[in-house]
Amino acid sequence: MEALDLMLNRVSVTRLTDPAPTSAQLDLMFRAALRAPDHGQLRPWRFLTIQGEARERLGKLMAESLRVRSPEASDDALLKARKMPLRAPLLVVVIARVQPHPKVPGSEQVLAVSCAAHGLLLAAHAQGLGAVWRTGEFSYDPYLAKALGLTGDEQILGFIYIGTPEGTLRTPPALEPKQFVSEWTGAN
Ligand SMILES: Cc1cc2nc3c(=O)[nH]c(=O)nc-3n(C[C@H](O)[C@H](O)[C@H](O)COP(=O)(O)O)c2cc1C
Fold it and tell me: Which of 29, 135, 147, 156 is deepest in the core (most CB within 10 A)?
């Protein structure tokens, strides 16, 4: 696939099914992620892959974390939480590990990890896989972060759901650059 075709046409895919990416496909996705721009080459990222039965364990943890956060959560809400990770054959948890640095503020480190997540999405699309970046309440849940082994300087930037697209891909929305871009000349 041409690089520009990829960048112009990537869309998120929410309806995902088996098969999961192969380990060779995943390897390429992570290699693309690791090419993210990275001020100071701090490599401020870490990723967890979760597939197969581990998704059920993650769903159990999500339901537990919801119960801890909202003891009044309904059975329906708990069941929904439990099933969330089953929406794709494989999930990548994107984790930012912000470290103190004299020249690179934490916000820039988070931006670098966010670029890495975009690299994952692009490399998934380039290989005919489908992927979608989700956050939601569980990305910010300290109980879940701890259960997943995150330390105090780490944060979840998202769960990337990856699999085989079910059905045809959406047409990307046509946005006009001129709505967002203007030239600054410095004159006047
Ligand atoms: C940081 C971040 C968090 C997101 N979280 C969610 C989410 O929790 N649920 C969701 O449906 N979309 C979420 N999205 C948006 C989708 O990933 C996707 O970009 C959006 O649906 C537009 O689709 P497109 O990528 O095909 O343009 C998130 C995007 C970003 C960048």
Answer: 29
